[in-house]
Structure formats: structure tokens, C-alpha cells
Amino acid sequence: MIACLLIPGFELQAALYHRPRMRLRPAALSPLPGTEPLLGPVTAAAEAAGVRPGMRLGEALATCPSLVLVERDALLVETEWEQVIRRLEDNGFAVEPVEPGCLYFDTRGVERLYGGVSPALKRALAAVGSTWNAGAGAADRRFAALAAAAIARPGQAVVVDDQRTREFLAPLPLTLMPLEAGRREELDRLGVKKIGQLAGLPGSAVAERLGPDGRRAWSLARAEDGGNADWNDSAGWNDTKVSARPPATDLAERLEFPEAVANELTLRRALTALLDRILARPERGGREIRKVALSARLVGGGSWRRTVTLREPSGERGVLRAALGPKLAELPAPVLSLGLELVVLSESEGRQLALIHPEGEELETRLRDGLRQVRARAGAGAVATVVEVAPWSRIPEQRALLVPRD
Amino acid sequence: MVADPGAARTARSARLNEPRTALVEENFDGSPCRVNRQPVAAIREEWRVLDRWWTEEPVSRRYFEVVLESGQNVVVFRDAEQGCWFSQRGA
């Protein structure tokens, strides 16, 4: 069976982890700067006062003037989430984290260890701890497991019988479906409010009215594969399979500054020192780095984190510095400490080098292939050429044009 | 070269080094003292561009190449026609 463990409002819970008294007060996760002013998850006290997640900030403050806005702390969220995953892995669960607060695991490997699905889920909940208000669900499909975990009370495990998945899903609200808000509203206007009502509609009519997303939701509601056993959704996961993450590398270095630093030159030097230290760690065992995370503790209490996935794994200091250096310019405030973490390492040591470097026609072909890939990924017009139109002009923007190369 | 994917959807030609609006605080002599909330450490160069005065869209700009306290080099100009500040690359 597939199990899902859900911690509702994880980002808010993580932000309040070291301020437990605040959990009892009306509090909400503040919107990200530069985005629409919509609230994130809210505490139970805030909900009791009429504040709902996704509410406009102004409306929420008018509804509950004592509402406390809690800043998002990306670093704390990552750290606490990693702790939760590690605790589960220490108890034998091979987990697939989806996002902070939601993960899946296959119970087949641990059923015999703990004596069944329910005891395994109980063990998982105990491993996570009661402070996080986690709920667990298990079913023969990911979506059904997610729905079961979503309706489970904190600390409760809901197991859905293999043969009764569709009956279990039928009375649940449509808000559990992975659908755009607009599509959900459209269905609501049509009187479709429950998953069972959606599952009862003809598939072709749903596909015609709501497009591929609607058809996918319809298949999920019917607990079907949509006629294809290897069917994957847009996020790339299969509804009947769990891909456990590779073992964590646990390679991290941190540099504390005696006082807050905003100077990019100093930060770049600190990054070089961190790279030297982390690349020299014997645990790396010569393996190259595929994914690396740069984090910072900001002055005033916030935190910042950026993850970089390298196109080709590398263990060279210069390559890593070139990939991470520009990220330092995105720091929103002076930093008190800078951290570097090797998130994913390559499986093998060394790299197969080319004996003869491509040139001439072969190089052209490779370049064309590369450009085709970029176009396929970013759309028509993504590849452009700089064309000089008036290089003599005294007005810089008159000198050249960026012309799409299709 | 690869352009911004957001701009790519329109698949139209675009000018390179278009000016971008900048938040600039001025000294009494009109030179910048803060650019995008960062203090200016030094002014490296200053020049004027007066062009297209014979058209209905004349260009009158006072350019400054400045070094910010963070060590970053920035070129900003005040557009006399529009009365506001811009930053620009490739100037």
C-alpha cells in the first residue's frame, strides 16, 4: 500500500516551532514579498476568529485586528523538514518527500517489521512526533492516500480498503482534488461539489469541458489509471508508485560572521572558503556534486535559501563558484551566517572524458540539438540573436536588437 | 544566446539594454547619492547625451557611472524629458 503523511500548514508550524505560545494566538503566515497579498496557513485560533488561509491581508486584518503575521523562514522550514524525514528514515521508512509537510512511502517494506499497515502508520506518526499535528493515510493509490491523510485528525491514521477506494473518495469535497481554483469554481457552478459526483460524469464530457487537467482529476476521482498503466501526471509521478529519495548526503558547512555582512565581495570570499572546506570533506569520497544549496541567516531573524542543480555533476571549485556566485546578489538583507550544503552527489566517481573534441559539422549538429531543446523547453522565440542596427548611436538601446531565431 | 523565457512567448524583436526605472536619491547638485536604496561610494564618470533634438522625441540624458558601497558598478541617468531616473547596461 501507499502511505501519505501530511503535516498541515508546515511552514507556519515550523515558523512557530520555537514559539509555542504563539500557536494559541491568532496567527497567519505572511504573504511573500512581491506576490499577491494572500495569507498562508493560519492557526486554529485565527480560524476561530474567522480568518481563512488564502484570505486577502486587508480583509483578514479587518476581520481579526489582533492577527499576528509570521514571516516565512525558508531555512528553518528546510531544516525542520529534513529532521522529520530523517526520523522516518531512521525508523525504516523509505520516503519520497513531495514538499515540506507532505511525503509518501510504500508500506510493503515495513508491514512485516511493524506487524501490518496500521501499526506501521502509527509508528511513522510516533517517529514524526506529536508537536507537528501530522495525519497519515494509506490506500492503494497516492491520491487516495493523500485524501485519507487530509481527513485524518492529528495523530490519526486512516487506512482505505483496496476494494473500496472509490467509495471512500466519493463523499469527500472537491477541494481535495489537484485542480486549478477556476476549474473547481466552474464545477461548483455546475453543481459538482463532491469527488463522487465528478467520478459519475462521462469522461469524454469532462475532458471536453475541463481539458487534460479535468480528465486527470476525473481519473483520480475514479481511482483509475486513465487506461495507461504507466500514466504519469504533470508533476511526473505515477499514482501507484513511490520513488524513495536516495540516502541523504549530510554534507554541510556553515560560516558565522562576527557582524552582519552585506558586501558582495566578502560574501564571495566566504563562499570560496565554504567550497574549499566542503570539497575537502572525506565523506564526499571523490564523488561529484549534482545539487547544492546555499543558505543564509539574515539580520533581523529571517533566512534565505537557494538550491542549484548543476547541468553536469562537478567537483570543481570554479564551476561551483560560478554557479553559486550570482545567487549571492539575490540576498535581500545583510547576513549573519552563510551555509553550503551538498544536497545530491553523483553515484560514481570521475567522468568519462571525450577522446576527440567535437568540431566542424558535428559541433554544429550538437549546437542545433541544444537550441532545439531550449526551444522545446522555453517555447518558440526563446533563442535569439543580437543584431546590430545602429552601433554608432549614442543612445545605448538603439544600437542592437534581440531577434528571435526560429 | 538565450533570451528571457517570459519574453520568449511573444517571439518578437526586443531592444537590447533597454533602460530600467531606478530609485535614485539626488544630492543638491543633481548627482546620485543612493541608487536602489544602496549608498553611492564614488562617481566614476559623468556625461550628457543630447540627441534627436530635431524630432518630436528628443533625448536629453545626464549619465553617471557610480560605484555602490556593495562594490557594484552601475550606470544611471536622469531623463530631462521625463524627469525621472533609469539604470542602463551597455552605456
Strand tally of chain B: 8
Number of strands of chain A: 13
CATH architectural label of the domain at 251-349 in chain A: 2-Layer Sandwich
Uncertain runs of chain B with pLDDT below 50, 5 residues or more? 1-10
Strand order of the largest sheet of chain A: 4-5-1-6-7
Helix and strand element order of chain B: HEEEEEEEE
Low-confidence stretches of chain A: 227-237
Instruction: Categorize the overall geometry of chain B.
Output: globular
In CATH, the homologous superfamily of the domain at 251-349 in chain A goes by the name DNA polymerase, Y-family, little finger domain
Question: Helical content of chain A, roughly?
Answer: 25-40%
What's the number of helices of chain B? 1
How do the strands of the widest beta sheet of chain B line up side by side? 2-8-7-6-5-4-3
Overall average pLDDT of chain B: 85
List keywords for this structure.
A: 406 residues; alpha+beta; five-stranded mixed β-sheet; four-stranded antiparallel β-sheet; B: 91 residues; mainly beta; 4% helix; disordered N terminus
